[in-house]
Amino acid sequence: MLVNDGGGTSTSILDQLNPLYTAIAQGLGELAGNEAYMDTLEANFPTTISTPDPMKIPQPDNTRMFIADFKVPGTYGFTVQHGYWGTAVPTSESSPSPMDTQNELTKTATQAWHQAYDAYANAGYGGSAAAFRSWGQNVWEPDTEAMSLGVYGLAGLMTWLQDQLAPSAGWVSPDNAAAPTWLANLKRNWPATSHSSDSFYDFWDDVNDKCALYLDAAERLASTSAQTTATISDFQTNLLEVTTKTKEHVELALKQWQTWKAPSGYWGTGKYDDNSTAKTILGDVSYGTGVIAMFPPAALISGSISVVTGGLTYLIPDKTEIMKATTASTAGDIWDGYYDDVDSVCTRMQKALDVVRTQPPKNSDLASGSMGFESFVRMVQADRSDWTPHPVHL
User: Fold this and answer.
1) Cα–Cα distance measured from residue 342 to residue 244, given in angstroms and rounded to the nearest whole number
2) Do 37 and 110 form a contact (C-beta atoms < 8 A)?
């Protein structure tokens, strides 16, 4: 079903992806904000988070360390205790008090947080969410529901053409025992002085061959369309899985910031919870299950069963891979990892479709089963005259 997301026509899979894109963009914004906020605090008073031995750093004159609570903004905000350098003894009325320094540091860190957040969540129209949509557009844009309707239509054509090949359909020589009575009578009563009967019967005898030719073509079109639809549908599911896991990973990172109140590389466990066991990227597509199993050609037309379910497959080593986004810890690294993951989904979908397009179907009893679909199309274009009915001169 076609839907409109406000920016044009799209497929329903985008309705599921859009809120995930927005959540990831906002989550990465908060992660980047947390990083910027902490960097601001660390720049004023470094700790072991950023400096191996911070207490050996010379202190500014007439200052000492103070401890204060700093409130980090955001949906996943938290309060962190952190030290800062403040004036130990005011030397004049214009000297900032420790509270003045704390307030200024809070203001600067908060501004840094919002600037970093905006860079991911609000930059330009749609922020990062717009970029995420563009990365996966080749996968989410095809409308597999509309494609399925085309496959069903071709399946109906296949059934009708197969019926035309039965002797009872009448596309036989008038001398054939299965010929209808009216056809034999037509030949017997045709005026002896007319020569048009020759062209008529040439045409009539040829219809059976043409039906076989068009049936093979319809089977190839239906089978290839079904395989293409199933492949795209699987990879759309894959893109949704990859995006969902990335969103969950960003939320995990934000919750762990709340727990440890420190950057991801310095959490109390000493190890980042990277979700590395969440293997997601697809391997083989099974053309005997899932979307493909709903298409009539696999059940109704014997000539295409081997094409549809016989195994046009593509291989990925180990069939699954560890997502890069779920092994990253900072906003920038998760951004880069998600880009790589989506690029992998897009690239592999294209490779899978190339196999469907170029490789001959395995174990096929179709007349054109010895060639790939692309070669079949070229053959039809080159031999166009074979597809034209014989002329009839009445």
Assistant:
1) 12
2) yes
Q: Which residues pair with 71 in a beta bridge?
A: 79
347 exposure class (CB count in 10 Å sphere: 0-12, 13-18, 19+): exposed
pLDDT score, position 201: 83
Max mean pLDDT range (28-42, 197-211, 227-241, 350-364)? 28-42
Provide Rg for the chain, Cα atoms: 34
At 47, give phi and psi (nearest 5°): -125, -170
The Cα–Cα gap between 43 and 13 comes to 45
CA neighbours closer than 13 Å in the CB half-sphere of residue 338:
32
Task: State the Cα–Cα distance between residues 165 and 19, nearest whole angstrom.
Answer: 52
Handedness of CA 350, 353, 357, 362 (dihedral sign): positive
* Residue with token string 């989410």: 140
Degrees to nearest 5, angle at CA 324 with 319 and 326: 105
The token duo for 194 is 């007319």
Q: Which amino acid is at 342?
A: V
Closest to 253 in 3D by CA, of 93, 29, 6, 3: 29
Contact 297, 226 (CB under 8 A): yes
- Placement of tokens 């939320």 in the chain: 251
CA 72, 75, 78 angle in degrees (round to 5)?
Answer: 35
Q: Convert the pLDDT of each residue in 33-70 to its tens digit.
A: 999 999 999 988 888 777 777 777 777 778 888 999 99
pLDDT at 89: 79
pLDDT category at 282 given cuts 50, 70, 90 is very low
What is the reported pTM? 0.82
State the CB neighbour count (10 A cutoff) for residue 249. 25
Question: Token pair of 285, please?
Answer: 């597509």
Whole-angstrom Cα distance, residue 74 to residue 91?
A: 38
85-116 burial by CB neighbour count: b if 16+ within 10 A, else e?
A: bbbeeeeeeeeeebeebbeebbeebbebbbeb
Q: Name, in order, each residue with C-beta under 8 angstroms of 180's C-beta and a sequence gap of 6 or more.
A: 170
Cα 141 to chain centroid distance, Å, stands at: 9
Cβ atoms of 247 and 239 closer than 8 Å: no
Q: How many CA atoms lie within 13 A of 221 on its CB side?
A: 18
